[in-house]
Amino acid sequence: MTETKTKRRGHGDDSIFFSAERNRYIGDISVGFRADDRRIRRRVSGHSKQEVRKKASDALAGGGSSEADDAELAAARRIADVIPTGSLPGFAYLRW
User: Fold this and answer.
1) How many CA atoms lie within 13 A of 53 on its CB side?
2) How far is CA 80 from CA 11, 12, 42, 89, 92, in A?
3) pLDDT by residue (tens digit) across 18-77?
4) Residue 72 is inside which H or E element, if any?
5) 46: CB partners within 8 A, 6+ apart
6) For residues 56 and 51, what is the distance between their CA atoms, to the nearest angstrom?
7) Residue range 66-78, pLDDT digits in tens
8) Which of 7, 12, 43, 73 is least enclosed by beta carbons within 10 angstroms?
9) How many alpha carbons lie under 13 Å from residue 24 in its C-beta half-sphere?
10) Going by DSSP bridges, is the β-strand pair 15-19/24-33 parallel, antiparallel, or unpaired?
11) Is 63 left (phi over 0), alpha (psi -120 to 50) or beta?
12) CA atoms of 62 and 31, how far apart (whole Å)
């Protein structure tokens, strides 16, 4: 009884699958977590698995920031500018 065992994906390899509807490969990647502990996911697509892997690695190298993430960061910086650092207890973490 010889069974061929498929190699398990490593942690952080994310998901690559074929979509018959779109006739292309889809890659779902995780680029981090939001402030409310939800996972930030990005989706890339291509005609081959290799193309999807390259796009996914490029997205991970770029940090995967979106306009929503940038707006959230800009709002946090505006709040940090208004509140004097260290003058209110519990707000010392706002220092940039």
Assistant:
1) 5
2) 36, 33, 29, 14, 9
3) 999 999 999 998 888 888 888 888 899 999 999 998 988 888 877 545 555 667 767 777
4) helix 67-82
5) 24, 25, 27, 52, 54, 55
6) 9
7) 555 667 767 777 7
8) 7
9) 11
10) antiparallel
11) left
12) 10
Residue 40 and residue 32 in contact, taking contact as beta carbons nearer than 8 Å: yes
**pTM higher than 0.85, yes or no?**
no
Spatial separation of the C-alpha atoms in residues 67 and 9, rounded to whole Å: 31
Q: Which two tokens stand for residue 6?
A: 């498929």
Per DSSP, 20 falls in state T
Of 72, 25, 32, whose CA–CA distance to 53 is shortest?
25
Between CA 70 and CA 60 the distance in angstroms is 16
Q: What is the Cα–Cα distance from 76 to 1, expressed in whole angstroms?
A: 60
CA distance 22 to 74: 36
**Measuring CA to CA, how many Å separate 74 from each of 40, 69, 82?**
18, 9, 13
